[in-house]
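Hey, resending since the last one bounced:
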Amino acid sequence: MSWTILKFGLPFVLALLVASLLTTRTFHVEVVIPAPPQDIWTVLMNTESYPDWNPTVIEVDGQYEVGAKLPTKVMDPAGKVLEMTNTVRTLTPNRELRQSGGVVGIITYDHQWLLEPVELGTKVTQHEVDRGAFLWFWNSDWIEPAYSRANEALSRRVANLTE
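The structure tokens again:
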């Protein structure tokens, strides 16, 4: 029996584990890009070009396909590069790219790019749910602004490629 369980008791440890799994933060940003979904999808699927346009996700090693585990680098506002491995969960052409990763209980994430045709083009949504005990200590205030910058950069990239 571990020292932690002896000192605090199994009920405390279980309550801590449950609390960490129930702790969530949701991030959601949208933009309307005046282009059809297939133009946006083409940019999102070209992982080799991410360093050329994406200020947040600066590197994706590999190609998106369901089940693929892709090493990815993300840059925070201070310029620190965070490395993670995303598992592609859903890949619906011109509609949805969903990826997840992390360590259960510590921090996990479920991130989606959603494309929806609208009258003026395509509504592009980034939606993410993070879970875990690390959220108690981590300042995630930079996530939504970073995703907004990525959406704006995506809009510029699509415009430049379709001109």
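The mean pLDDT is 91.

Sorry for the duplicate.
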